[in-house]
Amino acid sequence: MRPPRLGRTTLIAVDGPSGSGKTHYAARLAAELGATVVSTDDFATWEQPVSWWPRLVQDVLIPIKLGKTATYRRTEWADGKPFLGAERRIEVPEVLVIEGVSAGRGSISDTLSLLVWCELPDETTRLERAVARDGEQVRKHLLTWQAFERGWFAVDQTKARADVVNS
């Protein structure tokens, strides 16, 4: 792991396709390191799979880099539908883990201390895990999402830049 590159904070990204275990991996890592976790699900919607990124940068990464408290409104989900939810405040952590699809995008490579790629090889298994987690009502959305993320990862080359690959 590289030294802190987001101000005094060590930034770790846990990325990979949906249903690959990123959230569980990030939780274990955070418990081990005493880290704070931010999920890309706190920002994404079905209609905006990755275009919400400037909000995460503005509301979380920039304040933390400047040594200030980060504040943002979470996207929350009910029955597979997103809505603007509760406000979350994050004091400047020693270690910040961002987990979720596109968390390790190339645009933040220079601020990452570690990029972890999680991927179960079988797309069908990943789909069934995601449906089990989020409910049958999101299966159609998840099929569209899987097609989107294949394209996203092919362009971003996230896995190729990963420091750790967990399959």
Describe this structure in words.
The protein is an alpha/beta fold. The chain has a single domain (10-166), classed as P-loop containing nucleotide triphosphate hydrolases (Rossmann fold, 3-Layer(aba) Sandwich). The chain is built from 5 helices and 7 strands; from the N terminus they run E-H-E-H-E-E-E-E-H-H-H-E. It has helices at residues 22-33, 53-65, 123-134, 139-156, 158-161; strands spanning 10-15, 36-39, 70-78, 81-90, 95-99, 114-118, 164-166. The strands form 2 sheets. It has a 5-stranded parallel β-sheet with strand order 2-5-1-6-7. Helix 3 (123-134) packs across helix 4 (139-156). The protein is globular, with a radius of gyration of 15 Å. The two termini are 19 Å apart.
In short:
The chain is of the alpha/beta class.
Secondary structure layout plus pairing:
Blueprint: E1 10-15, H1 22-33, E2 36-39, H2 53-65, E3 70-78, E4 81-90, E5 95-99, E6 114-118, H3 123-134, H4 139-156, H5 158-161, E7 164-166
Parallel strand pairs: 1-5, 1-6, 2-5, 6-7
Antiparallel strand pairs: 3-4
Helix pairs in contact: 3-4
Keywords: Kinase, Transferase
GO molecular function: kinase activity
Organism: Actinophytocola algeriensis
Largest sheet: 5 strands, parallel
Walk across the major sheet and give the strand order: 2-5-1-6-7
H/E series, N to C? EHEHEEEEHHHE
In the CATH hierarchy, the third-tier topology is known as Rossmann fold
CATH class: Alpha Beta
CATH superfamily name? P-loop containing nucleotide triphosphate hydrolases
Low-confidence stretches: none
Architecture (CATH level 2) name: 3-Layer(aba) Sandwich
Pfam family, one: AAA_33
Protein name: Uridine kinase
GO molecular function, one term: kinase activity
Keywords: Kinase, Transferase
